Amino acid sequence: MNAAHLERLAAGCLVGLAGGLLALPVCGRATPEASDRQDLRRVQVGDRVDDVELRTLDGGRDHLVAKGARVNVFVFFRPQQERSRDTLVDLAGCEKEFTGKPVRFVGVVSDAWPADEVRAFVRDAGVKMVVLVDEGDALYGKLGIRLHPVIGIVDAGRKLAAFEPFRQINYCDRVKVRIRLALGEATEADVARVDQPERTVTHTEGGVARRHLNFARQLHRIRQEEKALEEVRKSLAFAPGADAYGLQGEILAALGRCPEALRAFEAALKIEPANAAAKDGKRSCGQ
After folding, report:
1. What CATH architecture applies to the domain 201-284?
2. Is the backbone peptide bond immediately before 149 cis, with ω within 30 degrees of 0?
3. Domain 3-195, what fold?
């Protein structure tokens, strides 16, 4: 992270978010850069989102809002941040769910982060979206964004249909139902049901366990087995389940640790006797 970026962070403050409103910085000393910037403004759901063309992570150029998409979804994220990682992992599933539909996903990251580090972060999360580089944090400043991660959804009329800051519970479901609403596939009643999930400790722990398990699957897919194993352990710590034990067995088997893998497969079958992955896994280890 360069010195200029650190200076900007030190001078600024977090913004408030209430009723769909992105507020401007509310405290901290003003810097010459901030006082000279005339395009800082409040952005509300329903406002038109102006398109901008930015450099991509791969060195090309691309748009924040694509003309060919009925719904544009952009996510501002920060590498080395756990909740940004969890959000991208969830969005990898969203991308697949909306395959073939006029929905476009794009990431936005500050140019303060080294490109190789961002590439690794995105690759490990499993997302396929274009990543735009916000040079000098110009777009962050224009929209008044200081929180990470945050997801914006732009409808066919190029209006901001939703603005979703990170939530530990139900985040992916909230984003998906708002995309479906913008596509005309969901109603406001559907949104209301997702916005008011049953708030229980079990629900919270299950959500955290699922995020760790999804990330473990992505890591296993790209053969980062030790990291995948650690994520499975975190998932099991929150909510022991057949799928988690089955994946743990698959990873251990891939590492050539069949005795441990067999114990994991047995644990999966004890919870779910018909678990196909565990049965196949035992055969792969000679049983």
Report:
1. Alpha Horseshoe (1.25)
2. yes
3. Glutaredoxin (3.40.30)
Residue-wise pLDDT tens digits, 207-260: 778 888 888 888 888 888 888 888 888 888 888 888 888 889 889 988 888 888
The Cα 10–Cα 176 span in angstroms is 34
pLDDT digits (tens, 9 = 90+) for 28-61: 333 333 333 333 335 678 888 888 999 999 889 9
**Looking at the DSSP assignment, which residues form a beta bridge with residue 117?**
none
> pTM (2 decimals)?
0.60
Q: Following DSSP, what letter does each residue of the chain receive, concatenated?
A: --HHHHHHHHH--PPPEETTEEPPP-SSPPPHHHHH-TT---EETTSB----EEEETTS-EEESS-TT-SEEEEEE--TT-HHHHHHHHHHHHHHHHTTTSSEEEEEEEETTS-HHHHHHHHHHHT---EEEEEGGGHHHHHHT--SSSEEEEE-TTSBEEEEEE--SSSHHHHHHHHHHHHHTSS-HHHHHHHHS----HHHHHHHHHHHHHHHHHHHHHTT-HHHHHHHHHHHHHH---HHHHHHHHHHHHHTT-HHHHHHHHHHHHHH-TT-HHHHHHHHHTT-
Angle between helices 242-254 and 276-284 (to 10 degrees): 20
Domain positions in the chain? 3-195, 201-284
